[in-house]
Known about the structure:
The chain is an alpha+beta fold. Helices cover 30% and strands 25% of the residues.
Amino acid sequence: MSTVSAIGENRLVQLLTEKLAQREDVVKGVGDDCAVVLPAPRGWLQLLKTDCVVEGVHFLREHAPEQVGWKAMARAVSDIASMAGEPQHALVTLVLPPDTEVIWVERLYEGLQRCANLFDVALVGGETSSGSQLVISVSLAGRVKTTRCARRDGAREGDAIMVTGRLGGSQAGHHLTFIPRLTEAEWLAENARIHAMMDISDGLAKDLPRMAAASGVEFVIEEHAIPAHVGCTREQAWSDGEDYELLIAVPLRAARRLESSWSRKFPETPLTSIGRFVPVGHGVKPSFPGQGWDHFEKA
């Protein structure tokens, strides 16, 4: 098997980028010092996101490289979705140990490109480097209509707390196969009064308090209502992380009506009300011991 050190950087980049698809708003993609793209038109805001997956932290070498590539791109797409946006252009940086097999990297790029194609993202450039640990970094630009930009800091006292899909199960492989809720977020932006929205990447236990803190409120959770994947406990659904579902704050009086219209549009994906936001000083700490994922928490 050929390694990346055997074929060199130029040949590796050629292999990875020669079949990339492009969008109409890409003036110049791979092959120059910078990619050149058309700016967002009037009435739109630009969204910028960067994310990375690191061997030994987000994936293992024995995982299928196509799934690792999918995850690397899908994580960034999920964040664009959480702002009710549209992903557009991606830059991919690879840090590869010199003994990495070329076929592994090619399969990684197949996964990256498969996710990019599904969500109409153009891979327009990036960087390669050698290093002791395998890292895939994706920088993603997108856009969102000025009137629809969803942020995490808009939750209000009395709002219903809602989540899409089911939570927990990242250790069973869900973190490598999830589909970002881009279509669902677009529908929500058009059909619901969203006060706040974010994606659940570090676990509900970590991300719900982040939304509450950003919004200046606290929360009360109905623990029995948290939707868990089959085989997962409510505690795992609370704290596992890497769910990539949407966490939403909407007016309480609109929640039941929203659940009904959602179920007609997305019959196989639940939208569940799990509690409400309350004034500071009135929150109730859940009984679950899990605290979600923290990259820098001591073991």
